[in-house]
Records
---
Amino acid sequence: MNKIPLVNLERQYECLRGEILEITDQVFRSGAFISGPYVRTFEKEFAASHDARFGIGCSSGTSALTVILQALGLKAGDEAITTPHTFFATAESMLAIGVTPKFVDVDPETHCLDVRKLEAAMTPKVKAIVPVHIYGNPCDLPNLQAFAKKHRIALVEDCAQSHFARIGGKFVGSTSDGAAFSFYPGKNLGAPGDAGFIFAGSESVSNIARKLCDHGRSEKYLHDSVGFNHRMDGLHGAILSLKLKRMPEYTKKRVALAKRYQSAFAGKGYKMPAAYPTAEPVYHLFVVEVSNRARVLESLNAVGIQAGVHYPVPLHLQPALKFLGYARGSLPVAERVADRVVSLPLCPELTESEQDFVIQKFLEVAEK
Ligand SMILES: *Cc1c(COP(=O)(O)O)cnc(C)c1O
């Protein structure tokens, strides 16, 4: 039986193997293992690719979030509004610097932060809002920007799943006070290990963020602030540069495959996340809602199709965040979404015939 994984990294490696081995050899010969020229080149390329002015490579998406929040002045005792329908790191990165996440429910149509519910969550302690472009589906950025401006709080986008997504013709992450990207291997742009990226909205914030990633040093052994080790590795920078060139093609393939799923399911009444007007999603995940998820996962798995759930437990109900005091039922839309979403295989390497098999098996078992 041919297995159809959620993301086929082996197939991608087969295509890129020659180039990856060659650049790996170059990095080893240069000895530029941490930061250095390969990382600097990638920083320029990735920032330019998104029309961002200030970009910093770092060790993960999680550290990117922590560092940009810290660079924007968030500190222990502050609060930040975010979504419960995301990966744990969105909130964890805040708690790492003593900032308390304040969860606001999601829009049932897009699964992104519901801007209509922001005002009620506002307190003097809230110093930032951290929307997540979940599945690569851009949030309602125009209204989020207006909200942040009105309350004079920072807007930091979690772009871990949304490389090259656009809204209003602009790339996500490029117009806010800050943004964080992840290059976790399975993300739309993936490194051979953990890596991340920070966009800063100003030069001063960019300088602070860069320092925080590198032990707060101003010279080799002179430290004028206390930072941490959040640096990007040279090998990661070099391989990310190589893969970055293919992103237009990879993104186009993701979008085309997503459209095929959509046209197969829409006529049959299944509910899938909608996009805001002018949004151009990049489909890190292809998500559809079902009422019998356990059965769907079991049936697909039985024929070698690896489906996933992103994410089964909303953050406000995570055991580790119990101390925040949210009860079940407090964010009903996110809870309902978490019970119903299933992610089907999607990556640039998925073939149409594999996808047709997934569609056929899904339709045999999935209930609305
Ligand atoms: C992957 C991810 C992160 C964390 O990124 P890492 O590189 O794994 O640390 C944060 N937020 C979201 C939405 C993610 O999907």
---
Amino acid sequence: MEPHIRSDQDCHNALDQYTLELIGKLTGDPPREKGQVPTGAVKKELSQLVEKACKKNLTGPIISLFQELLKQRLAGNSIRDFGLTKMDLCNLALKHQQIDEHMVSLGGRLTQALPIAGKSNARVEEYLARKDTEAPSGIELWPQIQENGERIRTKLNMSTNEWGSYKGQIRNCINTAEELAELIDLPAEAVASIGRVTKNFRMRLTPYYSSLIMPGNINDPVMLQSVPTGEMVDNAGIEIPPVAADHSPARLIDQFYPRVVTIKATNMCAMYCTHCLRIAHIGRKDKTYSWEAYGEALEYIRNNENIRDILVTGGDAFVLPNSILKWLLAQLDDIDHVKVKRLGTRIPVTAPMRIDDELLDIIEESNDRKPIRVVTQINTAQEITPLSRDAYRRLSKRSFTILNQAVLLKGINDSRVKMWKLCETIHEAYVRPYYIFNCSYRNPQFKHFRVPLEVGRDIVESMYGNISGDAIPRYIATAGGKIPLHRSNVISFEDNEYILRKPWSDTEVSYPDADPDTYKTDSFAFATYQS
Ligand SMILES: *Cc1c(COP(=O)(O)O)cnc(C)c1O
Ligand code: SF4
């Protein structure tokens, strides 16, 4: 040990408060009761720790030694029992500080940082224990999904080539209750219930998406999203509320905002969601749109210079043939005031085979001209399989970014564990959580899926401080535009000082505001040198 510290004075000059307190605690006389002399084994173990702490150029052994000394002290033993002096401890503490790149002190790390880190672990303990059983991802379920897929493929008489191609998936879609009952074990009443709804509402599952449904789980979250139940017509009858005309200033266009518009470029999806907010646009029949319709939509955008961001959606933008997508994106890129674009699609989870090289080339080509984001919808971790993850990985290499808009749905993702797992799983699949929508009251068919607003606030707020910041979505109500539902963490304001709430621990912290007078002055930085 190099003797940097020789006196109490040196100690006080070189070490911080936390370390001095720690050393004080270790060197104060312990309340020794007779007969409590450390055993030979303990002494030997300790001398090994001392040797490591002294010889190695590592901080870990020093921490371990001090942790053991604290334990020994609690047992009534003294550092003298191990042949150590106060100066030895001071010098080891100094060594710790000198090794650490950021000069973190031994006391700071041992008595502050390590207990704080340990305590914060408690916040995620329950999640970690439950996430893989309560909300398994499609990657964890992959062996079972593959088995389901093989069963479904054989029943549908599909070749492996057909199964692996987008065209094959669409050709073999499951549209009726009877077809579904052939592939998935369902109670007879459930089949009748589905039949009752599908007379009036769309149902369509790709064979791939139906392979994500786990046999034996009566309310499987993937099935709930894709197979409609009788509640839909019981809630609100068979009439679909008409499209609100007041947001469509031009053919195919929806506009809520001055700078962003959507083009509803198709009314088709590879899978029809049981909670589709666009149910009125989806209609009852697939339609192909005319060049005139696209032309008029583009004309509206061309004539409105305020518009900078175009969201190509539907339906599902990836249902559009590559040739139309390529043409549409080129047209948009050609408009000076259009600066950024988005494509709205759920196909990477409903039919990931669609993401072929030709499509990726089209996206990259357009992204090179002006940034293009892919906006997707994933509601459960179960929808992320090795295949969909790979589709997102390839998309993320060719586009600006991929954003997820999830819908908060009862029984599907309405718990902390399920939603945290969703956000972490998609984050690991190259997708950023963007929005979580509270399921709208506007389509009364979906009443049975609605979740109280406050439940969603609790779920989203609980993510702060516990999962990566860029994996935390914003919570939104749609009511003629998107209304943020974020809970306020500003408690009060007095004497230019805020009281803020830490969402992860519900503790309060004071936060002085910028000085208002300093903020008001124009004379700052280089301007102070103006003659
Ligand atoms: C969601 C939506 C947008 C985009 O809103 P952002 O907050 O920018 O994501 C634009 N127009 C319509 C009609 C929408 O529904
Ligand atoms: S993918 Fe979107 S538009 Fe299509 S059915 Fe689902 S929610 Fe509706």
